[in-house]
């Protein structure tokens, strides 16, 4: 099936995006290798999980996989924190040869639906430096938030230890880092959300604000004094 032709709808539709089952455990090493490669390419610490961890997510019905025939074409998993008050959507990966065809969008959509159906009361969140993920999250109804609005569950924040920027997170007492935190709160659907602006407007304003903050943090890290 690959390389995919950019606008061939039939080829794109032939790639299945499903909740992973036992039959997909054979792809776990490929998932981790693809995450490793992307992490090296981007120079950021997308956390590598153990084989056992990814396998457990699949067995618990908490993983989404994209499959092109018998080829692995993408992955993401969900995990709860703070006794099911929060659900993180993590480990999103689309191998290079499958990128740019809307697969991440489909995977994230499916992970969102899975999170909503399994944990309808939970807030859904993620951390990312990637514009693609920020765009997808905004379209799903996430809003950028400060880290104080995310879970305080230590288990979640431990996942940041493998990131090259972990020292920044420590230096700021976990209040900010180079990642943007994004959150979907089901309460917003019930009329408790911020009104007036579209999620994308909120997102754009946040990106502008964060650019200035990130620059200051990066300059601090490199020993330069911020203004
Ligand atoms: C990020 C990643 C998952 C995107 O996968 P993908 O299947 O190519 O993404 P999609 O085709 O679904 O694109 C979704 C949107 O993001 C945009 N996008 C994709 N890659 C982008 C990039 N590098 N920069 C900016 N926007 C990007 C697309 O244009 C699309 O927007 P649109 O629908 O408004 O046109 C993939 O590049 C990847 O696996 N990267 C390495 C791992 C990673 O960064 N994971 C995320 C960790 S938070």
UniProtKB/TrEMBL annotation:
GO molecular function annotation: acyltransferase activity, transferring groups other than amino-acyl groups
Name this protein carries in UniProt: N-acetylglutamate synthase-like GNAT family acetyltransferase
Transmembrane segments: none
Highest taxon of the lineage: Bacteria
Keyword 4Fe-4S among UniProt keywords: no
Gene3D superfamilies for the chain: 3.40.630.30
Residue span, N-acetyltransferase domain: 23-159
UniProt keyword list: Transferase
InterPro entries linked to this entry: Acyl_CoA_acyltransferase, GNAT_dom
Coiled-coil zones: none
Lineage: Bacteria, Pseudomonadati, Bacteroidota, Bacteroidia, Marinilabiliales
């Amino acid at each position: 099936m690959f390389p995919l032709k950019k606008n061939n709808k039939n080829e794109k539709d032939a790639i299945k995006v499903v909740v992973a089952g036992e039959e997909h455990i054979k792809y776990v090493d490929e998932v981790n290798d693809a995450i490793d490669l992307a992490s090296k390419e981007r120079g950021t610490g997308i956390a590598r999980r153990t084989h056992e961890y990814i396998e457990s997510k699949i067995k618990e019905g908490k993983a989404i996989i994209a499959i092109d025939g018998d080829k692995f074409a993408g992955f993401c998993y969900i995990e709860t924190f703070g006794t099911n008050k929060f659900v993180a959507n993590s480990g999103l990966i689309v191998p290079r040869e499958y990128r740019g065809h809307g697969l991440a969008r489909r995977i994230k959509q499916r992970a969102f639906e899975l999170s909503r159906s399994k944990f309808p009361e939970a807030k859904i969140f993620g951390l990312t430096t990637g514009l693609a993920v920020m765009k997808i999250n905004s379209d799903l109804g996430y809003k950028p938030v400060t880290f104080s609005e995310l879970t305080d569950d230590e288990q979640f924040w431990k996942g940041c230890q493998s990131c090259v920027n972990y020292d920044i997170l420590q230096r700021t007492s976990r209040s900010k880092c180079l990642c943007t935190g994004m959150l979907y709160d089901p309460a917003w659907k019930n009329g408790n959300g911020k009104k007036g602006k579209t999620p994308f407007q909120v997102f754009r304003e946040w990106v502008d604000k964060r650019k200035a903050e990130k620059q200051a943090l990066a300059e601090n890290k490199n020993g330069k004094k911020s203004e």
